Amino acid sequence: MRVPLIAGNWKMYKDVNESVEFVTTLKNIFKDVPEDKVEIAVCPPFTNLKVVNDVIKGTNIKLGAQNLYPKQEGAFTGEISPLMLRALGVHYVIIGHSERRQYFNETNEFINEKVKVALNYGLFPILCVGEKLKEREEGKTFDVVKDHITGGLKDIPKDKIIYITIAYEPVWAIGTGKNATPEQAEEVHKYIRSLIKDMYDENIAQKVRIQYGGSVKPENVKSLMSMENIDGALVGGASLKVDSFEKIVKFYE
Ligand code: PEP
Fold it and tell me: Which range marks the domain in which residue 179 is found?
């Protein structure tokens, strides 16, 4: 019912030439991946969106951006608007990644504004939520996740919520090699689905995709994906190499 979404977040890696070479290979190895089994996306740096789109256009790989600025245009030096992303063929946009929250002080309010603007411009947000290690240790995981979900989805109407993918990314598992166990992840995913049910209804809660992110690797992807409420993965480090990203995308084999 919910087709899993495997999205590669390249962060600030790969230049133009490396990006073209990489997606040219991906296009071939993923050409037989059935779209009803898994949806694939890559999220390169802004500078590489155009060349990547030129390679993957018309294939089963969708294009994602890693951020946006929530204005159509204006005097915002160094920022990129949703309209500019649309013009480059962008489909998904990652919003509220923990690195944005941590290094760029992004708040729930700002993230919520970005989600709304992305939707208004026909982009599909991937909203990242998740607790830090200290918060988990202090037993605050559900509180933090609730704050991120209710803040990030504030005033998003019923007819728009299904265009949003939630990515549960425990901060302590991102880029650390320490992934949440499938059971730990499932517990939070189930909780997120219950929050969506409370905010909207059961039918909508069953439709919204909730990805897991945090050191997803070929070795752990199958067990994570076997969980009822885990609908794909947002993959950082392991999405940068053909071999590991291929195995993650083809987890169903
Ligand atoms: C991420 O950047 O969203 C991420 C989950 O990174 P990694 O897979 O490297 O932990």
Answer: 5-249
